[in-house]
Amino acid sequence: MKEMVKKHRLSERAFGFFLLSHPGPVLLHLIAVTVFALLAAWPHLIWTVLVLVVAAHAAMQLSIATLNDYCDRNLDAASKPGKPIPRGLVRPDEALIVGILLIVVMVVLLLPLNPLALVISLGYLLLGQGYNLGLKSTPLSGVVFALAMPLIPLYAFAGVGRIPPFLVWLVPLGCFLGIALNLANALPDIQRDAAKGARTLAVVLGVKRSFVACQLLLVLGATLIAVLTLTQLIPAHPWIIVTTLIFTCMAIGVMLVFFGPEKPFWTWKAHFYLVVLTCIVLTGGWLGGVLL
Length: 292
Prior knowledge:
about 75% helix, single chain, 14 helices, Tetracycline Repressor, domain 2, Four Helix Bundle (Hemerythrin (Met), subunit A)
């Protein structure tokens, strides 16, 4: 009987840590960094390097996700009692220890790689933990995303030891897409954030303007890529760029038709995942068009 109770508690603890990891968003981050790392290394793939790049980024994202719930544990107890810490699946001190250990794992995995990859990862980690420690409840949340998003492809390229000059254009592109991601991510929680007095960028803009701004920023990102290609400032394979832009336009069209302030609230989370997919395809497609 005691053995059964022990196994039950272990399974609950494991499930709690699984939920604590924010598996959906973290998986999307890992897909993105894998795509960017493959593009950066192509055609000279070194699988051990690629594994280290993805694994180190996974450890960092899991640390940010875990410490996010640790920092929000008191607020979640009141507004999100189903979260793993308020439910008692994971103790706060366990979440804190695991979050810190994951940072150590990240650093160890990065040591064999280009030192610039470690510098970029630490910069991303600082932004992520700053977001956890309070920036998420201010309009600066959009700035955090704008600064952090370009660092993902830059990290992937640095990790495989390839830093072509055209990557500088990832900064404005990443800013557009980063703010769009911040707004899409905040929209499902906008009512709860407003009720507890948080001044996120989405709360400041309001629901309608947040949806409009999100789609407009995707259009600006696509326009930047189109201009860079048409002017030959950054030469790229036209068919890859055209395919990427067609997908982006279709995705924005779907957002306009099926998502918005007048649509059911439960669709707003699906809108976030569509925005994430669009950002990955837009950035990955442009990088593929330039590099392949």
